[in-house]
């Protein structure tokens, strides 16, 4: 073309001049078009289009200055990348340096949309600016993209064109809550800057803390323009609070001032916990040593970014570029928000290419009213298309995977840093799956955290307020001073002793001051409910005394664990229910046992007589004598005074077993009779309240207690209730019959019984209540501390010793259970009677069998004659006639005497009669000559003939 232009100039000067002018015009138009962004870049004949993007930043801030440099480098890196050389679009940034003003930011946005006609706006730094620009984006369908501002108060459905390319604050709140849960802190105070940046963060944090059981007692807000005096006032309020765990979220400048003053006030020492939210953790990159010096021991939470080769190379190039543009800077690399700005610019370049041809399609305004004519800005379909494409863009960015979900960058992992000296040490991580862990891939303990004050011991999460002495309320209790009383400015009694034991066992000092809830004239200032309510009104820091834990009281205060026995019972008089009469001796044995024992006495006597009367002359004689022997022998065994000689071994066995039974029966009777005659059987006069209600008796209770409400619920008429104040009044009312029962809590009743044990007892069901506890304000950290101390006293035996001092060495036994003696029953001795009965029957059977076997020849002879009467007669003779072979030693004389049947004993067995049957002699003829021995014996006084003999004669 140059040759053609030269030839024309040589041959045709005029024409050449005209042609040169045309070429110059074309070049100027090209330059002008390039300036407007409408020029053409030739790359293989392809036209490249510019996509205009507005940027609103405050270049006077570290964030604005760093972010702008990162965005410029992002586009430079993107378009120099060989992978993007063939792209047909070019994103062009239009910067507006607006400062911190939201109005200026909104004005700049209108200008960019009306005059530059941008397809996107990036960078409103603050939430206040984002609130205005989000509405502007909704009207024009232009995406408003922020990498630093929090979401506005509206939901994403209300502001669909506002996109956050930073991690969601709600996930940060979950990470902070998990860290607090890890160390079991139960109360946290957020300390935040009073601006729109915390509109969404505070509710998210409170909700996350509530989910892990941590309470937010109040919130400390400090305005960004606050001076030193105002900040000191806020710090003083924090020092006057029990909580020592704080979550801080504010700007760099305000945070540096706040922590400097907090250190001066001694709040960066041991026992305090400071947790900084993401955003503030960048202060160490921006401010450097001044921040590190005043924030030692602070724990911070910030998004985790993997340190890759690409990130390391970028930081080196960024530092070179930034230091060249900003000489004297101390920054070594971009802050996290700068990396978000880099990824945002990269994502816009990708989205612009994927969206295809984008041209400014804003409808022109009907009138030109200036750059702030907000109402007449039209929508842009190209910007809406870029918006949709941007939301679907995903790539590996500097901070990790760039992925927009619900109009926010998807958050994954947070790291936990600890400021130690001049270093930031990573001590752990938070992930949705593992929560708090020292390792990214597995559950592990955190590394050691150095807390404020250079202490490695985890703070307990609360501290006594500076120069705080606990004001302890003590109830006025004239009647039961053993529990609590106030003397000479000091609390006395069991309740105060337990409390002071617990206080002194704590690892820290708790200054206390007692104050009686009385008027100084021997009267109380109100009920126990009124005293507890004084704690709710912060007039007392706690109440120490016999305060029963009740549901209505727990609505206003927190109670410790109970330190006394719980429940309500009845106290009633007792009386001896046994009446000692002339027939008391019969009571040890029940009627069935008396009858059973008598039956076995007779049964055993019969068995002994039956076995012994054939061979033992002591069991023979007239019928009356033998009957007397039966009963005498049996009953004389009661005192082991029987004199009859036993000659049969079977009888001896039966008697030995029977004597064993008699011994046990006798001893049991003696013990039971002694108990009846000497021990009182004390029984309560009343066993249940239903009986009291039915009889219309009066009921006593402790004055100034919750008993009237309980008794009314139990359907006791209010007119039947009488209050008392002391154990002495209890005793007087019960002993005189003024009241039938006293209804009170078990500790009071046990103290009463320690003085009046013998005449009263506790009866009836136990109505459940939680016993005595100490009252503290709601959320007081001392409540769990005192509760743990109470458990420690109970486990090491100290509580038992204190109760022993309160109730005395001996405890009053339960009259109903321990002093009752009932009659012995037949069932208790049934086994013994079965043994003696079985042994006696066995002896009888063996005796019958042996006797029949010894006389079997006579029975066989009788049976051979075929007469059953004869057989019975033979059996009768066998078991009723005496057995002379085994009788007493003078056997020969008895045998001679028995030759004459006239002189035979009527109940003895005659052996020679059986011999006469065998020899067929004349039983009626007299015996031989007068000199015979038989004749001599016959001259003695003969008895009547035996029953067996007379029967055989017939």
For the residues shown, what is the average pLDDT? 80
SS class: alpha/beta
Beta-strand share of residues: 15-25%
Radius of gyration: 57 Å
How far apart lie the N and C ends?
183 Å
Tertiary shape:
elongated
Helix content estimate: 40-55%
H/I helix tally = 33
Largest sheet: 9 strands, mixed
Instruction: Please provide the count of β strands.
Output: 30
Low-confidence stretches: 1-45, 364-372, 885-954
Family: Belongs to the glutamate-gated ion channel (TC 1.A.10.1) family.
Subcellular location: Membrane
Main location: membrane
Subunit structure: May form heteromers.
Can you describe what's shown?
- It is built from 33 helices and 30 strands.
- The protein is elongated.
- The longest helix is centred in the last third of the chain and has 30 residues, at 649-678.
- By secondary structure, it is of the alpha/beta class.
- May form heteromers.
């Amino acid at each position: 073309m140059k040759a053609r232009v030269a030839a024309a100039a040589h041959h045709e000067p005029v024409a050449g001049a005209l042609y040169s002018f045309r070429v110059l015009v074309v070049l100027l138009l090209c330059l002008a078009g390039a300036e407007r962004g409408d020029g053409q870049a030739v790359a293989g004949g392809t036209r490249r289009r510019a996509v205009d993007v507005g940027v609103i930043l405050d270049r006077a801030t570290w964030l604005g200055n760093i972010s702008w440099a990162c965005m410029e480098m992002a586009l430079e890196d993107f378009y120099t990348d060989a992978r993007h050389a063939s792209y047909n679009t070019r994103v062009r940034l239009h910067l507006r340096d607006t400062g911190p003003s939201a109005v200026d930011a909104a004005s700049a946005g209108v200008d960019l949309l009306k005059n530059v006609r941008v397809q996107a706006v990036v960078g409103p730094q603050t939430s206040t600016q984002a609130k205005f620009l989000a509405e502007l984006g909704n009207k024009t369908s232009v995406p408003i993209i922020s990498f630093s501002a929090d979401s506005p108060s509206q939901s994403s459905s209300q502001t669909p064109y506002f996109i956050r390319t930073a991690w969601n604050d709600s996930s940060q709140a979950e990470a902070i809550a998990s860290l607090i849960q890890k160390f079991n802190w139960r109360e946290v105070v957020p300390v935040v800057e009073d601006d729109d940046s915390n509109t969404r963060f505070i509710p998210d944090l409170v909700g996350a803390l509530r989910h892990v059981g941590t309470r937010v007692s109040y919130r400390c807000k400090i305005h960004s323009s606050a001076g030193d005096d105002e900040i000191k006032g806020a710090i003083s309020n924090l020092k006057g609070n029990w909580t020592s765990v704080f979550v801080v979220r504010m700007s760099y400048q305000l945070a540096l001032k706040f922590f400097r003053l907090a250190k001066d006030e001694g709040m960066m020492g041991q026992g305090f916990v400071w947790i900084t939210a993401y955003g503030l953790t960048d202060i160490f990159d921006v401010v450097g040593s001044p921040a590190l010096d005043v924030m030692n021991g602070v724990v911070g939470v910030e998004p985790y970014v993997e340190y890759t080769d690409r990130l390391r190379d970028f930081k080196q190039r960024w530092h070179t570029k930034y230091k060249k543009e900003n000489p004297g800077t101390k920054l070594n690399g971009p802050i996290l928000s700068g990396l978000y700005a880099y990824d945002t610019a990269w994502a816009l370049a990708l989205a612009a290419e994927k969206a295809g041809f984008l041209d400014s399609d804003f409808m022109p305004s009907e009138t030109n009213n200036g750059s702030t004519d907000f109402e007449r800005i039209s929508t842009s379909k190209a910007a809406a298309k870029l918006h949709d494409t941007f939301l679907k863009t995903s790539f590996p960015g500097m901070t990790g995977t760039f992925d927009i979900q619900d109009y926010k960058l998807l958050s994954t992992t947070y790291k936990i840093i600890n400021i130690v000296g001049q270093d930031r040490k990573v001590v752990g991580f938070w992930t949705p799956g593992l929560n708090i862990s020292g390792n990214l891939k597995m559950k592990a303990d955190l590394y050691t955290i150095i807390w404020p004050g250079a202490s490695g011991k985890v703070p307990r999460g609360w501290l006594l307020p500076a120069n705080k002495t606990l004001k302890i309320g003590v109830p006025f209790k004239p009647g039961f001073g053993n529990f609590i009383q106030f003397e000479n400015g000091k609390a006395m009694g069991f309740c105060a002793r337990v409390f002071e034991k617990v206080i002194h066992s704590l690892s820290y000092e708790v200054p206390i001051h007692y104050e009686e809830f009385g008027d100084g004239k021997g009267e109380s200032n109100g009920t126990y409910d009124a005293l507890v309510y004084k704690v709710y009104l912060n007039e007392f820091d706690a109440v120490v005394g016999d305060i029963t834990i009740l549901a209505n009281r727990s609505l206003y205060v927190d109670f410790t664990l109970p330190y006394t026995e719980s429940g309500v019972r009845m106290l009633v008089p007792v009386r001896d229910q046994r009446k000692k009469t002339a027939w008391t001796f019969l009571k040890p044995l029940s009627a069935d046992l008396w009858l059973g024992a008598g039956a076995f006495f007779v049964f055993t006597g019969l068995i002994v007589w039956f076995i012994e009367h054939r061979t033992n002359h002591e069991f023979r004689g007239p019928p009356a004598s033998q009957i007397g022997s039966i009963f005498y022998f049996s009953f004389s065994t009661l005192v082991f005074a029987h004199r009859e000689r036993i000659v049969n071994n079977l009888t001896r066995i039966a008697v030995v077993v029977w004597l064993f039974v008699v011994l046990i029966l006798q001893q049991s009777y003696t013990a039971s009779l002694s108990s009846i005659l000497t021990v009182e059987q004390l029984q309560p006069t009343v066993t249940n309240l239903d009986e009291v209600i039915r009889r219309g008796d009066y009921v006593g209770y402790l004055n100034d207690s919750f008993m009237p409400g309980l008794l009314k619920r139990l359907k006791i008429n209010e007119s039947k209730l009488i209050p008392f104040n002391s154990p002495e009044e209890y005793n007087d009312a019960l002993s005189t019959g003024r009241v039938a029962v006293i209804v009170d809590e078990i500790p009071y009743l046990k103290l009463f019984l320690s003085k009046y044990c013998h005449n009263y007892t506790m009866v009836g069901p136990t109505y459940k209540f939680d016993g005595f506890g100490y009252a503290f304000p709601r959320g007081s950290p001392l409540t769990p501390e005192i509760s743990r101390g109470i458990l420690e006293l109970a486990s090491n035996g100290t509580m038992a010793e204190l109760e022993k001092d309160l109730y005395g060495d001996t405890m009053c036994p339960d009259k109903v259970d321990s002093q009752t003696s009932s009659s012995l029953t037949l069932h208790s001795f049934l086994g013994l009677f079965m043994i003696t009965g079985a042994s006696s029957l066995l002896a009888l059977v063996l005796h019958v069998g042996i006797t029949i076997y010894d006389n079997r020849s006579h029975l066989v002879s009788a049976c051979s004659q075929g007469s059953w009467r004869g057989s019975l007669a033979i059996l009768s003779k066998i078991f009723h006639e005496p057995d002379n072979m085994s009788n007493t030693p003078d056997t020969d004389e008895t045998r001679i005497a028995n030759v004459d049947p006239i002189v035979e004993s009527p109940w003895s067995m005659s052996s020679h009669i059986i011999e006469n049957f065998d020899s067929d002699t004349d039983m009626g003829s007299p015996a031989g000559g007068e000199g015979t021995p038989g004749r001599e014996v016959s001259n003695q006084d003969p008895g009547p003939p035996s029953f067996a003999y007379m029967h055989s004669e017939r």
